[in-house]
Amino acid sequence: MFTKFSHTGEVATQDELLFTTPFGYMFPDAAHSSSRLLPNSPETLAALKQLGDAMATDVVANPNDSGIPAVFTYFGQFIDHDLTARTDRDSTISTLGRGEPVNPRNPDEVTASLRNGRRPQLDLDSVFGDGPSLAAGSTTESDDLYDADLRLVVFNPAGRRDVPRDTANRSARIADSRNDENPNISALHCAFLLFYNKIYDAQVAGTPACKHVRARQLTRWAYQYVVVQDYLAKVCDLAVVIDTLANGPRFYGNSAGPGQTFMPLEFSTAAFRFGHTMIDHAISSTVPRPRST
Questions:
Q1: Under a CB-based contact definition with an 8 Å cutoff, are residues 259 and 100 in contact?
Q2: What gap in Å lies between CA 253 and CA 28, rounded to an integer?
Q3: Which residue, of 5, 44, 258, 264, has the fewest CB within 10 Å?
Q4: Which residues, 6+ apart, have CB-to-CB distance to 58 below 8 Å?
Q5: For residue 101, is pLDDT > 80?
Q6: Three-state secondary-structure class, residue 59
Q7: Percent above pLDDT 90 for the chain
Q8: Tens digits of per-residue pLDDT, 202-230?
Q9: How far apart are CA 265 and CA 268, in angstroms?
Q10: Which stretches of 84-207 are DSSP H helices?
Q11: What is the pTM for the complete model shown?
């Protein structure tokens, strides 16, 4: 469980990493071609800062807004946490604001040294952790996320539902502490806890272990369906989504690209970062700052 994870300090102790999966380049030729990359110059850094300023507009009613519901901003954040970990900087301080030059790392060095702390399978390990111990006499890091009947623990006094928290410091007792960075994503995480419990309780027969396995499976399937049919259909070109579902992927996947399965760096550290630009000014100005983790 990533109980000490954040987007600034990343992982506090290496023992939090129960496993790793590889990163790689979907287009390795482009990654190794200087002619296809941005020039390493002060002008490039200045242009990137201007782009950032343009995206961080203070205009409340922006005529260029997409109209996508605000919840998809935080659902995208939730998906990101479920797919990747360890893609942020190792320091809490960014050097970009100091005007220091950007020195791109060798692509081979990146793939050799950077490992993903998640299984990029949309399997909700950010919610379930490594699961409860189902074998007699065994324990897992996630045992305390479940009650004696293998329901996920939810804070629910007087109808106020929230993720479970430690009484001493109010930190969330969830499988990925990044999902408590702001009230919106913690509420979304809580919704998945409640959804799993609802499916668990709907089963009349079966041992707690069997009911857990089935409820976890159905929760994952529902999540994957929403990601493809609702989220992707909103944030992507719908024609591309339909074509991919009908004909399979062209560049990466079981029927395309290299045989080894990995998390494409072009996606996790570049393309999927568009979600940061989706935060509406009217919302971000009223939502409390993320909790420290």
A1: no
A2: 15
A3: 258
A4: 281
A5: no
A6: coil
A7: 39
A8: 998 999 999 999 999 999 999 999 999 99
A9: 5
A10: 107-113, 125-128, 183-202
A11: 0.82
